[in-house]
Amino acid sequence: MQAAHRVAKNTGILYARMAITVFISLYATRLVLAALGVADFGLFNVVGGVVAMLGFLNSSMAVATQRFMSYAQGEGDLEKVKRIFNMSTILHAGIAVLMVLILEIAGYFFFNGILNIAPERVEVAKIIYHFMVVSTFFTVLSVPYEAVITSHENMLFYAILGIVEALLKLGIALYLAYSAFDHLVAYGFLTAALAIFLLILRRIYCHRNYQECELNFRKYYEKSLMKEISSFAGWSLLGTASSMLANYGQIIVINIFYGSIVNAAQGIAIQVSGQLGAFANTMLKALNPIIDKSEGAGNRLLMLKATMSGSKISFFLLIFFYIPVLIEMPYIFSLWLKNVPDYAVLFCRLGLIRNLIDQLFVTLTSAIAAVGNIRKFQIYNSVLNFFPLLISYVLFSFHFPVYYLYIVFIIYSLIGGILVLSFAKSDCELSIPIYLKNVVMPCLVSFVLILILSLVPFLFNLNQSLRLLFVISISSISFLIVFWFIGFNIEERMIVKPFMKKIFSRQ
Predict the structure, then answer these.
(1) What is the CA radius of gyration of the chain?
(2) How far apart are alpha carbons 273 and 348 in whole angstroms?
(3) Which pTM does this prediction carry?
């Protein structure tokens, strides 16, 4: 019950953050698209796609480091946490240097025959790319600090930092609207500078507030621990890097065959799915430390319960926002963007469906990581990550439509879910029939029911604004009813009821 209370409190804080940041970020995207134009926005999505990759890399590597810290906290060993922090700092300094070398070498090939960029914008694209490489270095160095904040479940500071970031991004977008400089160069520079600034803030905060943030490599160096963390981080990095390259590869493949105009539509789809998906992934940031600490304390049963409840609740949180957007996306996009790029609506719908499939199994990956035996899983997962790109490249070579890329990735997500289930069974003692019965089936049935009910307004001749209002209302009401009676099992309702009584007793 205490763990559930902490998750509920931290999730509430993070949702307050999201409620503020999502709308600011989406409005900032509208301003940036208007300032850059479709062609330059698509070009930034190709070259500056490194930023999106780095955000994914940073959060995934932070989860790997946080796993060791939370596990040690579950054991109640502060000295071990200090050693983990120091070993992690050394490790990520090496990774940061390696990443810079790899990106600079890759940049040479990108700009000499791979990327499809207008000749007059090649030099600008190179400048943006170097900004992103600098940002990479500081992003990787920040991973231990991100892990410390998460392992302490300090979601208040995380929320404040997120709001500051959103407001500064809005400031950048407003600046671009009036800047006399090349908008693309200015956007690349300011985006990289913002990333560095936020990372410095994390570092200062952690050293002032957490005992384990004591850098003394000679005192806290431990060869066996360094080997263990390096092995775990290395296999995690393999899985993360392959997934990251596969996602960035989508951008490259589309650029090669269709150019930067179609990349603009892809950039919009990435923004929307990223912002909406953040609502569900926010809960995972609050849940992951509980999974790791439970396993660290030897409580496998609590770890599996948290895993199953987390997958189900994060899926429901996703469809709460996804269903109205999926149904009314053309109208929403016409209100949001001055010029809606071709394929933007189609890409976004297919991308959201893929996210829903991934969400069904998302916490199982955290459970596998908590147990710690990730080598074989990451090898299989890394190989699987590249299949969609290879298949899509072949399909495009035979002139298949561009949206086939997303269809291939949806099939890949289904195969990935089967892979995760099989490893969760062998490594975490998960019962697949119980998971399918308690998580997958309630989620799928609920999604179909809410979707059908939310389509009712289309049976009537309503104007678009009124129809959108009815779709949101019906979707929200049906969501609450379906979630309670189909989504929750009896035990989960017993946990939630005290929170509901507490909320209503304050009214």
Answers:
(1) 23
(2) 7
(3) 0.70
Beta strands in 324-375 (DSSP E): none
pLDDT tens for 292-327 read: 777 777 788 888 888 888 788 778 878 888 899 899
Burial class from Cβ neighbours inside 10 Å (0-12, 13-18, 19+) for residue 475 reads: buried
For 86-137, write each residue's pLDDT tens digit: 888 888 888 788 878 887 887 777 777 666 677 777 787 788 788 878 877 8
What is the DSSP annotation of 111-178?
A: IIIIS---GGGHHHHHHHHHHHHHHHHHHHHTHHHHHHHHHTT-HHHHHHHHHHHHHHHHHHHHHHHH
Q: Centre a 10 Å sphere on the Cβ of residue 209 and count the other Cβ atoms it contains.
A: 13
Given a contact cutoff of 8 angstroms between Cβ atoms, the answer to whether 87 and 225 are in contact is yes
Cα–Cα nearest to 307, from 360, 261, 252, 269 = 360
DSSP string, 87-112: HHHHHHHHHHHHHHHHHHHHHHHIII
Helix (H) or strand (E) holding 433: helix 432-435
- Listed in sequence order, the residues at least 6 apart from 408 whose beta carbon sits closer than 8 Å to its beta carbon are 388, 391, 392, 395
Which CB contacts under 8 angstroms, 24+ apart, belong to 449-455?
A: 449/478, 449/482, 449/486, 450/319, 450/323, 450/475, 450/478, 450/479, 450/482, 451/323, 451/326, 451/327, 453/478, 454/323, 454/324, 454/327, 454/478, 455/327
DSSP-H helix ranges across 398-431 = 404-428
DSSP for residue 485: I
